[in-house]
Each structure stands twice: as C-alpha cells, then as structure tokens.
Amino acid sequence: MWSTPERRGELAWGAFCVGCAVAMLAFPQWQTVPFHWIWITLTFLYGFRRWSNAHTAAVLGLVIVVTSVAMLRAVDNNAELSEIPLMTCVFLGMVWHVRRRQEAVDEQRRAADRERAFMHDAAHTLRTPLTVAQGYAEVMLDGLEPGTGAHADATVVLDELRRLARVSDQLLILGTADRSDALLLAPVALDRLARTVAERWTAATGRRVAVRESGPVSVLADESRLRHALDALVENALHATAEGGEVSVGAFTDRGAAILEVADTGPGVAPEDRDRIFGRFARGEDAETRPGTGLGLPIVGAIAAAHGGRVELDGGPGEGAVFRLRLGRPLPATAEAAPQGAPVPGGQAGWAMMTGSRVG
C-alpha cells in the first residue's frame, strides 16, 4: 500500500502530524505552534496531490479529530477550539480554488490534445489526395509546351499543390514535436551537427553558411529533430539575409546548458513581432515575397520544449537576428556521440524532416 513515493510521503506526513500532536500535549504553552504546522503542512500536501473527495474528507476529518483532542487536553480554555473551524474553512476554500484551477488546466490540456489529434488526422487524410494530384499535375506539365499560358497555369497549380503538401507534412510534425516521449535519445555532438548542416546548405544554395567553432559539445537529444530545427532556422536566415550578408551556425555551452545557435545579418525582428513569430501560421509583412507556411518557428519551439529547453531570440531591427536553442546539460567531454538513430531505452523512432521559416 505504501510502495509508491506518494504514499510514503503521506505516511511521513502522518507521522509528522502525530509528532505535532504529541508536542501539543507535552508543551501546552506552545500548543498553537504545532497546531498550525499540522494545518499548514496539510495545505502544502494537498497542493502536490490530487485527492478524491472521499480521500480529502477522510484526511480532513482525521486532522480535525487529532487537533481537537490534542487541544482539549492541552488547554483549559475551550475558546482555543474556535481555531479549528476557522482553519477548516480556510482549507476548504483553498481546496475549492485548487480544484477550479485544476479543472481549467485539465480542460486546456484536453483542448490541446484534441487540436493535436485533429492536425494529425487532417495531415494524414490530406497526404494521399495531395500526392495523387501533384503527380497528375507533373504529368500534365511535362506534356505542355513551355512558354504557353497552359504551361504557366499548370506550373502555378503544381507549386500550390507542393505548398499544400508541405503544410500537411508540417502539421503532422507539429502534432508530435513537443512530445518528449517520442524522442529518439542518444548522445549528439552538436558541433559536428552544426558543421554538417552548414555544409549541406552551402552546397544546396551556393551561399556560404559559416560555422563558429568553440570546441566539442555533446548532449543527450534526438539528432534528427535537432537537425530539423537547425534546417528550419538556417533556411529562415537565408531568406531573411540578402546576397553578401552572413549566416552562421554555432554550438557552445552557456550557463550549464548546451546551445545551438543560428545568426544572420538580415533586417532583424521588430519588438512587436518577437512573440508573434512563434505562433502558428504567423507571417511577416514580406510574406508574399518569401516562401513559407508559418509553421517553421512553432515547430522549432516545440522541438526545444520536448528536449526540456527553449528558443531564445536576440537582436533588434537592423541588427540581424540570433536564434538559440537552449538544450539540456552538456554531456561530459569523455562521452562520445552515438551514430544517428541509435536509441536510448524509452525513445521512439521516426521523424520526418521538413523545413520552415521565421515568419512564413
């Protein structure tokens, strides 16, 4: 019965209350001190536990009986007993507020679960017809003469279908991105990951993505998800930075945390947009001139949250932008990164890589 830590904690609290009751009897001149400690610790204990109504009533009744008996035997003036109904009313008021807040939190969690399930189902439902439509559009485009109006129209149709497919894939990713139980955990060399991502984007775009070296940095993480987050941030930085500007990737440690950083020399982010850009489907004023779905940064934020970290943004208008993924505590220098895909017990495999953009 007392095998769980919660039950053992309740047993320890019960022993503490018995000790307080004994102290009330042994030191009647100080009886109010242990009396109030019993009620204070009851309030704290309830704040950490979600008791049923029956359990709450049983514990409250037991506390009332114990404190009443101890106080009756410890003092001659029964006027002190008036504190018991007062403390009972205070405790019940706290219980009411805690339950109201917990109900609101539970409803919010259920709403988030429904939203996540909807995104997952919608993305799966849309994937097949979009793939079929995209295939037919490609066949039609191949059969049309370039430069004709029909060819231009078919090109637009194909581009929009590809955009819809990308939105569908990103919705599917977003539905599980913040779930820590879906991580495929293994030691990841962040410095090596930063170099790999920079080299790939340099080769793919013909624009140099610099790497800021600061020594080996490893952390226990899901490498494919971190790669996805870096891809989204680098693509975003390249879109935001004009030719001749600089985009860089780095990995280092700061205040006991492993950091992945992507910086650019673009126009930066306006103060009023610093929170908005992390919302789903948020687009900037230049959204018509830059590709994107508005899901890139929300996915990056969800990936960081799944690792127990967060995304930080530095830089203002005209100063460029610096996005940092603050992850967990770095591994000791002797730890070597495992090959990508080598799981740690408890992780789950499977992650699709799609890229996103800062405000589009």
Describe the structure.
- The chain is of the alpha+beta class and 360 residues long.
- It has a domain at 180-326: Heat Shock Protein 90 (2-Layer Sandwich).
- The protein has eight helices and seven strands; from the N terminus they run H-H-H-H-H-E-H-E-E-H-E-E-H-E-E.
- It has helices spanning 5-26, 32-48, 53-74, 83-142, 149-174, 190-205, 223-240, 296-306; strands at residues 186-189, 209-212, 218-221, 247-254, 257-264, 310-314, 321-326.
- Strands 2-4-5-7-6 form a five-stranded mixed β-sheet. Strands 1-3 form a two-stranded antiparallel sheet.
- Helix 1 (5-26) runs parallel beside helix 3 (53-74) and helix 2 packs antiparallel against helix 3 (53-74).
- The longest helix is centred in the N-terminal third of the chain and has 60 residues, at 83-142.
- Residues 337-360 have low confidence and may be disordered.
User: What fraction of residues sit in β-strands?
Assistant: 5-15%
Overall 3D form: elongated
End-to-end span in angstroms? 54 Å
CATH-level-4 superfamily name of one domain? Histidine kinase-like ATPase, C-terminal domain
Q: How many β-strand stretches?
A: 7
Mean pLDDT: 78
SS-derived structural category: alpha+beta
Secondary-structure map with pairings?
Blueprint: H1 5-26, H2 32-48, H3 53-74, H4 83-142, H5 149-174, E1 186-189, H6 190-205, E2 209-212, E3 218-221, H7 223-240, E4 247-254, E5 257-264, H8 296-306, E6 310-314, E7 321-326
Parallel strand pairs: 2-4
Antiparallel strand pairs: 1-3, 4-5, 5-7, 6-7
Helix pairs in contact: 1-2, 1-3, 2-3, 2-4, 4-5, 6-7, 7-8
